[in-house]
Amino acid sequence: MASDQIRQMVNFILQEAHEKANEIRVKTEHDFNLEKQTLVHEAKLNIQEDFAQKEKDREIQERIQRSAEIGECRVKKMKVRDELLQTLLSEAGSKCGMVARGQNYPHLLQKLIVQGLIKIEENDVVVYCRGADVGIVTQVLPEAVKEYVEIMERESGIKLSPNVKVNEDRSRDLGDSTFGGVRLTADLGKIVCDNTMAARLQLVYEELLPSIRAILFPEQ
Fold it and tell me: Are 109 and 143 in contact (CB under 8 A)?
């Protein structure tokens, strides 16, 4: 009788042990599967984030490269445009040189001197010109001064007696790049009125540059 009770107790204990072991096994498998799923999910997220970052970096690099290419194209386009404008300016300068060889050039020099005297508004003035123009400037200077005096007297009622002379230092003659014209100075060179053909051309060029650009390079 006692042995049966002992056997029943042993069986009960063994059954409890098996059930407990099975419970532990089930819980362990559940925890393992849950942990595995979590690790797999995190790994997928990391892979997706890594792929997204790489894709983002690739897009950024493409935009940088595209921007650099666009900038380079713009620089090249601007360079070509500037070269064309400079060619245009150079050709216009050559035509100014043709004017300096024309029969009306002495009259033009006289008018440029008169205009320069009006602008400079000084009594003692030195007129500079190209070496090739010294003879013409010397010839037209008296008439230019006379015209200037008459204009000032008519406009202000004051009769001036300006001392205007042609530069005598041939080393300081204007270069051929001026295309002709004159440059007037006063107060030991501190006051200057540049009425050379090149200066006048540059002034007109700058004033008309927006219109020139619009004609040569219309927006597409």
Answer: no
Average confidence score pLDDT of the chain? 84
Q: Kindly tell me if the per-residue pLDDT of 11 is higher than 80.
A: no
CA 143 to chain centre: 47
Contacts of 213-218 spanning 24+ positions with Cβ under 8 A: 213/81, 213/85, 216/81, 216/84, 216/85, 216/88, 217/81
N-term to C-term CA, the chain: 112
pLDDT the model gives residue 84: 67
Residue 125: how many other CB atoms lie within 10 Å: 22
Asked if 192 contacts 184 with a C-beta cutoff of 8 angstroms, the reply is yes
Kindly tell me if the per-residue pLDDT of 216 is higher than 80.
no
- The amino acid present at 92, given as its one-letter code, is A
Q: Using 50, 70 and 90 to split pLDDT, how confident is the model at 2? A: low
- 114 closest CA partner among 141, 154, 153: 141
**Alpha-carbon span 52 to 17, nearest angstrom:** 51
Place of tokens 């970052």: 53
Distance CA 127, CA 103 (A): 21
Residue 133 CA to its chain's centroid (Å): 39
pLDDT over threshold 70, residue 129: yes
Residue 101's φ and ψ, nearest 5 degrees, are -100, 0
